[in-house]
Amino acid sequence: MSVLTSSAPDKYNMRRHLKRSDVNPIDPRYFFVISLHMSGRKVKEISELSGFAESTIYDILSRKESIQIRQQILKNTQQEFENLFEKVVDAVNDGLSDVEIGTRLNAAQIWLKAHGKYTKDEGGTINITAENVVAQILMQAKEGSA
């Protein structure tokens, strides 16, 4: 068969049915606004960084496509977080049995915070530290073995 009479390569035929909106569902400038919003920036900051008026920012964020993209980003982020959970637990467990005392104390602090063992006074400062808890555990172990 001649090159001139052959059909288009398969990779081009696979995309032929897609519309531009299927490939790029939102304007890249709008996606920039959404990403700034998702990173916690205020509308005024987004306006200054993007060059859009504040009313335009509100309009972009309230569009159906923008809401769907934000929901998808949050769903993906939640899934990534859930996938990391087991690795974090393993890292904390490894830290608790580390040779270096500083690493063990940091791991203990993370574990205690995760399990709600820290208490805060009315000023918002922590009354108990990981060092105090570890010292108590060691004292109890010492008393138990004696």
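The record above closes out task 2.4. Task 2.5 opens with a second protein, given below.
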Amino acid sequence: MKNVKFLARIFFCVLCVAALVLAAVVLSAGSSNPSNLPGTPAADDPYWDQTAGPRGGVVIGFLRCSGGTVFALTECGGIFRSTDHGANWIHCPLASVNPDVTCAVVTPDGHIFVGTYGHGVYRSRDNGDTWTQVHGGAAVVDLNVQALAVNSEGWIYLFKDTGVFWSGDDGATWVKIRGPILSSRPLIKAAVVNSLDHLFVGFWPTNGVYRSTNGGRDWTAVNTGLTATWILSMAVDAHDRLFAGSDAIFRSVNNGASWSKVMSFPADVTFGPQVLSLAVTPAGHLFAGTFMAGVYRSTNRGATWALANTGLSDLWVSGVGSDDGGYVFAGTNGGPCLYRSKTTTINWKPANRGLVNSYVTDLAFNSSGRLFAGTSYYSRDAAHPYGSGMFCSTDEGAHWLTRGLAGKNVRCIAINASGHIFVGTENDGIMRSTNLGLTWTAVNSGLSIPLYITSLAINASGHLFAGVPYTGVYRSTDNGASWTLVVSGLSDYYVWDLIVAPGGHLFVTTNEGVFRSTDSGSTWVYVGLDDRGAYSLVAKTGGVIFAGASSSGVFYSGDDGETWSNRGLRHRWIHSMAVNSAGHVFAADFSGEPDEGGVFQSVNNGVTWKNISSGLTTGNVSSLAVSPSGYLFAGTFGGGVFRSRAKANYREKE
């Protein structure tokens, strides 16, 4: 018995020693690699995580696939997939940074091809889980793909203004074939294939419809009966009835030999009517998405059409589509950006859960850490801005709430010490909210038309300043109730950005350069950067000012704007800048190309810069803000809002 107790004691001691050794090893490992501590990303981790919103954006079209799957094509955010009739959407990234999507088709064997703007074609053989860029011998990798079509054999046709490309081996190789011979190079806005494998393409802004009956080798204009020869959309139904959309809808029942007008917009329509998209459901119903007239539907093979806008609050419908489960979808330019309805009884409801494609123009935090995001949308196909208003997050992006101004094109945000929010818009002037965005009031007394506000700032006295193109700078000393023009000494009135430096001096960027005011805007003096494209501004204590330019990088002044020197990032459009509590400077590049833009950080006043763009899915970064807790937030065009994985000052060594 004594021997048993003795052995038990030895075994217990061995276990204790082993536990101590193991604990020491774990602690040693942790202390040798502090970057892996919770909340601090490892060196090779992405810098950014996408937040949950704001939802919305621009949906330009849909692709119906078998098995109940439908894809939504967005203008700047790539494509999204739904397998539950649009109740939920997940992002299917084409690449680490999303190129602009223009079109998509699915082959008879279920392979999906997506055309992009400037980056050729991507293919997926697994329902969108993974993608491969396919360019083959024709080097279509750099092409701006205007339209795609696929025939019954799985042959893929790629259209652009300089010709037609063909692939018969699932995109492995591409051959340039003869396209329509035209004196100009109009855009090909739509392409369809009928059951005879005849190809039809629609041109814009002229030339109408062309047809090929031999795989694209020869083409013939088929425009008899078309009263408008600028074609924006096309569709073909199961009985080879063709439909073409322009300022009306035209139908052909004889393979394009002749066309008849089957839908006209009302005569009292004041805007330029356009049929932007056409789609045929599995049941044979037709839907048309229009510019500012919503959705039209036909249930009798296109013979007659009627408005179908019940529940649809956004009437700029860029894309329409359907799935094989009895649902139809409408993609809008702004607002929720995606609606769905049963095809039998039209009643549209927003259906954008998981679809984060918003265009965020500005970000601002209030003193309690609420994040406000302003949004704005533009389409490639129209010059009219159409916004989606304001959004708010109380948990640093985990959840987002709508905060009014639906349909407004928000340009800038400022929040005063009382928590009152001021929003500058394009065409609607300045809006003010005194209750965290629940309600808004226009405060434009004294402002002149156009009511286009590019920048807002507030000084320590609570005075507000607004930058307005063509008219200069306005000041309000009564919380926005009235505004006075303050432009004495300001020789250029086209104001891009406006800030109040820590010392109280005001700075503005204009087409002519940078101006400074030391008397609350009463007078201005020019301080440099003539013809450098100065666009954005940020300031630090001690008279340090940074100016971001539209084409020549970042400029630095250490003496309150008296002298300037270039601090790198040349040939980049620095759209927004921010400074954190550690004095680090951040610059957002809005290059317009997905693989060139991003965010850069400097810890030494711009002497050197570090690219911190990993994790961003778009290169169009439009706004930056630092939260009270120290995290960096980036607003993007096409990807909503991103948040740094750790506080923005954790990488202090360069």
